[in-house]
Amino acid sequence: MDNLTKLTTEMYNPKSANLDQMSIKEILTLMNEEDTLIPKAIKQILPEIEKTVEAVCDSISSGGRLFYTGAGTSGRIGLLDAVECPPTFSTKADLVQAVLAGGNRAVMVAVEGAEDDEQLAEVEMKERGLTSKDVVIGIAASGRTPFVKGALDYANSLGATTVSLTSNANAEISKQVNIALEVETGPEILTGSTRLKAATAHKMILNMISTASMVRLGKVYRNLMVDVHASNYKLKERAKKIVCEATGADYETAETVLEETSFSVKPAIVMLLTHVTYKEALDLLDGAGGFVRHAVNQTSQKETM
Fold first, then answer.
1. Is 225 inside any structural domain?
2. 73 shares its domain with 195
3. Which residues partner with 100 through β-bridges?
4. Cα–Cα distance for residue pair 124/101, rounded to 1 Å
5. So where's the catalytic machinery, residue-wise (predicted)?
């Protein structure tokens, strides 16, 4: 039987022994001090995060997908990162997915017993059509959630790349994966409440994985969000600003070119930097694998020949 009390994330934090007697300022100060430990803990596992990003890039480049799976807070964190990828990077809706114990209804309400059901995880992953090309990141602060274990077991049976993300060293789920991300943030100020430091660390790591992967996959030019999906007024204004930043064009010029590209930022930038037509810009991007810098450099090289 599991002994949860031995897990670091379940241990008593002596710094907050008098939490219920602290003033608001004292509580906030302590929380802030504890939160400063998070980036230091993440720094210790940067090599493993790098391997994960490399695996995600290889997977997506080969037609695979990225899956986050977890229960409760862990599942919701995975969902938060997954749903931000389409508007930020114009990815297809199924490229980065979150599989929560209890399904989507578990986002708002806890589903009793779902996190303890390993078989349910296999059913959920089968419904997503998991293949050997995919990457599955199992998220569990404790490192022993049955639903996550089940998802990783099924992924392993198919030959998919598996990654564990946990807040305890030598975690159970780390024994069954290709890459183990064990970020030790220590006991919480509210004993066992892993929605605090542990969850914050996991969110930061998922930010790193998805962002670095998308940069390496050509979704970024310089430090600009050139694959943004401009689906509303705010994002259309952001698209105009991005084009201005990338090309030096004024607002009106950027707006005119973006209207021609249906607010697709990448071809707009290539058009302005290389003085080509919309169709030619699309051809250049296609030949450059979607990388704006490569597309622009192709034109420069042709001009010098």
1. no
2. yes
3. 70
4. 9
5. 84 (proton donor), 115
In a domain, residue 221? The reply is no
Indicate the range of 2-6, 92-96, 152-156 predicted with least confidence. 2-6
| Number of continuous H segments (helices) and E segments (strands) in the chain | 12, 5
pTM above 0.70, yes or no: yes
Query: Can you say how many angstroms the Cα of residue 149 is from the centroid of all Cα atoms in its chain?
Result: 20
Kindly report the backbone phi and psi dihedral angles of residue 247, in degrees, each rounded to the nearest multiple of 5, phi listed first.
Answer: -120, -15
**Structural contact between residues 153 and 118, judged by C-beta atoms closer than 8 angstroms:** yes
**CB neighbour list of residue 64: distance below 8 Å, 6 or more residues apart:** 58, 131, 133, 134, 135
In a domain, 222, yes or no: no
Token pair, residue 97, equals 């997915």
Closest Cα to residue 265, out of 294, 287, 289, 236? Answer: 236
Q: Which of 286, 285, 250, 243 is nearest to 265 (CA)?
A: 243
8 A C-beta contact, residue 99 and residue 81: no
**Which residue range(s) make up the domain with 180?**
4-216
Residues annotated as catalytic (active site), given as ranges? 84, 115
Among 182, 216, 250, the domain-final residue is 216
Kindly state the average pLDDT of the residues 93-108: 85
Task: Please indicate, yes or no, whether residues 190 and 240 belong to a single structural domain of this protein.
Answer: no
Instruction: Report the domain count for the chain.
Output: 2
> What Rg, from alpha-carbon coordinates, does the chain have?
22
Q: 163 phi and psi, to 5 degrees?
A: -135, 135
Per-residue pLDDT for 105 more than 80? no
How buried is 292 (Cβ within 10 angstroms: 0-12 exposed, 13-18 middle, 19+ buried)?
buried
Neighbours of 2 (CB within 10 A): 10
Token match 């995975």: residue? 78
Is residue 158 located within the same domain as residue 13? Answer: yes
Rounded CA-CA distance 280/264 in Å is 14
Same domain, yes or no: 137 and 253: no
